[in-house]
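Team,

Forwarding the record for the chain on the shared tracking sheet. I've put the sequence and predicted structure together so nobody has to dig through attachments.
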Amino acid sequence: MKDIYLFVYGTLKMAGSNHSFMMGSTYIKDYVLKGFKLHDFGYGFPYMKRHKAGKVYGELYKISDSSFLYDIDRLE
């Protein structure tokens, strides 16, 4: 399988309450995702939307097992 790179923010980051879901992945670096912005619509978690001047700060991970993505997708 080809390696997959996953950008995470919020509870999946190192200090986040759901970081245990990242076990088995490899931390690459802190990363800034440009062209997106987080929005709070009052549901208790942010939504990421495209925004020309936006930036979202998070972390970049490498994943070698595609089944890992299934667990992350169910969480999110």
